[in-house]
Amino acid sequence: MMWEEQLKFYDSIVEQCPDFERKGKKMIYTSANSYMFTLLNKDAEIGIRLSKASQKAFKEKYNATEYKSYGAVMRDYVKVPKALYENKILLIAYFIESYEYVMTLKPK
């Protein structure tokens, strides 16, 4: 998927989540409670920040890997596999789970 198409897809997920909005012009992300929790990198890959337990379950269930942005491994993030792009409702649920997770963290 081309980056512009992926940006539209990412935005269409965020639009379904009433508690947060997309930020950034070149670096695309969502944030709350002083933490970023979803990202769209320059390679058009989506990363989601999850709790340790949810990361482990996500990686096992979807054969997912760690997420990298600009060459750096993003701690606590999982890379959304392309197969999940076809299940937008599930992705919306993961975006909301990610938001709820960062809201439990101590504000910076």
Question: Can you give a write-up of this model?
Answer:
- A hairpin with a 2-residue loop joins strand 4 and strand 5 (72-79).
- 27% of the residues are buried.
- The model has no long low-confidence stretch (mean pLDDT 95).
- The longest helix has 16 residues, at 88-103.
- The protein has one domain: YgaC/TfoX-N like chaperone (Yope Regulator, Chain: A, 2-Layer Sandwich).
- The radius of gyration is 13 Å and the shape is globular.
- By secondary structure, the protein is of the alpha+beta class.
- The protein is built from 3 helices and 5 strands.
- A 5-stranded antiparallel β-sheet has the order 1-2-3-5-4, covered by helices on one side.
- The protein has helices spanning 3-14, 52-62, 88-103, and strands at residues 28-32, 35-40, 46-49, 66-69, 72-79.
Q: What tags apply to this protein structure?
A:
single chain; 108 residues; alpha+beta; Yope Regulator, Chain: A; 5-stranded antiparallel β-sheet; 3 helices; 25% strand
Number of domains: 1
Mean pLDDT metric: 95
CATH homology-level superfamily = YgaC/TfoX-N like chaperone
Helix share of residues?
25-40%
Strand tally, please?
Answer: 5
Q: Sum up the overall morphology in one term.
A: globular
Order of helices and strands: HEEEHEEH
Stretches with pLDDT under 50, minimum 5 residues: none
Radius of gyration: 13 Å
The second-level CATH architecture is 2-Layer Sandwich
